[in-house]
Sequence to fold (145 residues):
Amino acid sequence: MKKKLYEACAFFVEEKHNTVATSIESYKKALFSETKNSAGDKHETGRAMLQLEMEKASQQLVVIIKMREILNKITFENSVGFIRLGSLIITNKSNYFLAISASKIAVENKIYYAISTNSPIGKQLLGKKVGDIIPFNNAKILELY
Fold:
């Protein structure tokens, strides 16, 4: 199950990367076109807006690279008894995969939430073990993989 969740997270990251890369390429083409075809204040405003969009896309690319690095740190060894990066956590409220923030993932008709170690729930889960109760909706950890 962990491998399937990992693969879903990796697919999520690749989709984000492809979207951002396409956007950057589009902005580059538009910027080149703006340079060739425009003049005056309209030209400067258009260029400035394109450059801002390219900066936003570049920042998104940095986040995507960090997500890949986090995924590369995950191992599929059996849990060592406490929650850590790569753990699959089953609680009486929800199921979590501690990796990256990728929202809901449906696998084999079950819903799992891919969360990062920096998320509020991720911070509360780190280091906990089976039987612990976490403050998030008073959830009890039932299983740990």
Notes: Residues 100 and 134 are 20 Å apart (CA to CA). Residues 88-144 form one domain. The chain has two domains: 2-73, 88-144.
